[in-house]
């Protein structure tokens, strides 16, 4: 029972960042119809920006976080303008391959710059965990969960309460009509990609101090983000948020009760299972032919 | 021209060791390039001819490598409930055949899947499949030694009863083995593509509803293409295992799939020579770059090259060069038909 | 009139709550040329997609030469001898016209479906390949595209792409051909040529069912006309009877001006 509670708490902590990763990816997927293969690299970049700001520049931990997020925002905007904007109207396979190329460039650049040795980001929180009865949880983890939930909440507010969000929702429904109504669709795409990228960077910046920072950390994170998006449904922000917690649940209990070695396999098994059992439930209705 | 070029290239590759001597570093680069090029040719069957963006191709390669290695090394593992499966070592050539069969069987699964799951979902499923296989190779330590790697994999031995046997120990021997298997794969793909089967694949790629309506069975065509493609990748994996004689779960790295994708897309997807030319260029590029930059910097170059090709030469080097040649030969032939074009095309 | 080759028996199609076809019931007899007409959104293309297996009906069934098509895949229906053309995308755009027809001849040249790959691997195809090429040439000649054989199909003019589509459908050796708006976008002289082609197709013993908006053309070529509106059959009969049918006139006049012009066209032919 105590162990169960501990697993549930771990699920919550892990699920928060997973949800953050998934929300960013699903936004881009849903609004732009782009499978963002730079998502993992942006997550890595976020973590390294955090490391740079805190460990190398000696910036305050809580100030470094917005810096890392802003870095992801700016990098995302650059990628969109440079690579995706000229590819509008191209088939989805071409954009996927270009994004894979961009992801390789980003990941290899971090490897080249920082080397392959993992880095630790010092955190200002006390080392001793918080004990709540049988459950122990580190202060840093709690902060990470709170940060993730706050950012998801802000994203929700942005989409549902602002003019920018309204335009994004319009572009999601029908980009052509939105353009006719005077929405700057090109600008919306850049904003969407930058926003999604900043969420990936935020997830990296939050999790970096919990674990360690290394150049390949984004690879698994990216594949997990795909799993989350598939579970939640294309472009479904709420679905991705829930999917993040579901994946964390599967991993935590899979690792705890089945085999810890296969912890990371859970996401992929979920992807395969979901798509095999409910392939039609996950994409649009059959197109009219002729 | 199109039939002569492969023959010339084959002759040049066969003569290459004579010109280079047996310099081990270069020969090694050529062998691994050859093995990856076989992988790229097999990937092209899916990526280029059926239009299925399968990004889990490395799974078939790695499965081939592990099946072949384990067949020739033997194993003794528990499969649960106290049952054990033990296997005595078999010859490497048998391992090769089993590798082809096992990878082909996995290809059958992916082929069935490709009809149910389309587009971005298919891409993600194939990547996931490869990751799951990698995690199994990493974690089933009793069978695979996990990260400690399978070592002491025997080299290929070919024997004829009464004539004794012949073991491929040198790099030169392996070079010709890879060249031979590569040539065989090329010929096989060429035959398939030029046959009715090839027309069925092209039809499905260009206009699926129309292809169905002229009686082409999509499920069977895609499945057969996936099986052949995977089996060839498995063959390449087997060659890799018995050449290096050591494999670890890193044979499943996504980066290797990306290398093959770059070879196919860069060379020209959906063409016979594309993956061969792309394979040689991008397989040997590290040899050229090694003196000037570190491996991680080479990967940055690779990524930039992939992006540049997609932007500047989306059809790849071979079709691009062919178009240039054709333009050089017939300068003003293109403008004879200026009829009204359909307003709505696909 | 001989026995029915195609029977559409009380077919209904619903997409969620939307009724595309409520209840469609008609027969086509062997050797007939029948047109399926109706205002935009009447369910004509949906009906075609049901007959050729691209859509599953929510109710009812289609029978072709006595065989129920329920549960059959499009390629299986083609193999029974029911072939179709497409309204917009009637060619394999990246291949030459000749290769288009060669793809269309996929099923021909002996029942080798199970040994498709084996054929490719063993050199067993030479003779049958030559026979196929001759068939392809003959077909292109027949639809009048012999001179275009070497050109990319996607680069052809609109009317010519339609002809490629017809050649592709005929390559499957159908007993019946479904033509989806074959002359839309064609000019008057191209349409005349196409009407002649449809008659020649019938002379080859192939039954024809077409969906078309061009009323003069429909009136000229059809033996019989079936009229759909809002997913329901509202009239059925010979062209002259359809022209004066009050329900048909009402259906067309109730629509926008484009449909009204189409109906006017129909009346013009009536007075001619």
TrEMBL record, chain A:
Give the subcellular location: Cell membrane
Question: CDD domains annotated for this entry?
Answer: TM_PBP1_LivH_like (cd06582)
Q: Does the keyword Cytoplasm apply?
A: no
Q: Which domain of life is it from?
A: Bacteria
The protein's UniProt keywords, in alphabetical order, are: Amino-acid transport, Cell membrane, Membrane, Transmembrane, Transmembrane helix, Transport
The membrane spanning regions, by residue number, are: 12-34, 41-59, 65-84, 96-117, 137-159, 188-214, 226-249, 261-278
> Pfam families attached here?
BPD_transp_2 (PF02653)
What is its membrane topology?
Multi-pass membrane protein
- Predominant location of this chain? membrane
Family designation: Belongs to the binding-protein-dependent transport system permease family. LivHM subfamily.
> What PANTHER family is this protein classified in?
ABC TRANSPORTER PERMEASE PROTEIN (PTHR11795:SF452), BRANCHED-CHAIN AMINO ACID TRANSPORT SYSTEM PERMEASE PROTEIN LIVH (PTHR11795)
| Name of the protein | High-affinity branched-chain amino acid transport system permease protein LivH
Give me the gene this protein comes from.
livH_15
Automatic annotation (TrEMBL), chain B:
What keywords tag this UniProt record? Answer: Cell membrane, Membrane, Transmembrane, Transmembrane helix
**Source organism's superkingdom?**
Bacteria
Q: Membrane topology type, per the record?
A: Multi-pass membrane protein
Kindly list the places in or outside the cell where this protein is found, as annotated in its UniProt entry: Cell membrane
Can you name this protein?
A: High-affinity branched-chain amino acid transport system permease protein LivH
- Which InterPro entries does the record associate with it? ABC_transp_permease, LivM-like
Cell membrane as a keyword?
yes
**Transmembrane annotation, as ranges:** 31-51, 58-75, 90-110, 122-141, 175-193, 214-240, 246-265, 272-293, 299-326
Has the keyword Cytoplasm been applied to this entry?
A: no
Coiled-coil regions in this chain? none
Name of a matching Pfam family: BPD_transp_2
Give the residue range of the signal peptide: none
Automatic annotation (TrEMBL), chain C:
**What's the encoding gene here?**
lptB_9
Q: What is the protein named?
A: Lipopolysaccharide export system ATP-binding protein LptB
Keywords of this entry: ATP-binding, Nucleotide-binding, Transport
Query: InterPro entries, from UniProt?
Result: AAA+_ATPase, ABC_AA/LPS_Transport, ABC_transporter-like_ATP-bd, ABC_transporter-like_CS, BCA_ABC_TP_C, P-loop_NTPase
Location of the ABC transporter domain: 6-255
Q: Which organism is it from?
A: Methylobacterium crusticola
The yes or no answer to whether the keyword NADP is present is no
Give a yes or no for keyword Cell cycle in this entry: no
Question: What does the sequence similarity comment in the record state about its family?
Answer: Belongs to the ABC transporter superfamily.
From which lineage does this chain's organism come?
Bacteria, Pseudomonadati, Pseudomonadota, Alphaproteobacteria, Hyphomicrobiales
Q: Which GO terms describe its molecular function?
A: ATP binding
Q: Which Pfam families match?
A: ABC_tran (PF00005), BCA_ABC_TP_C (PF12399)
State the source organism's domain of life. Answer: Bacteria
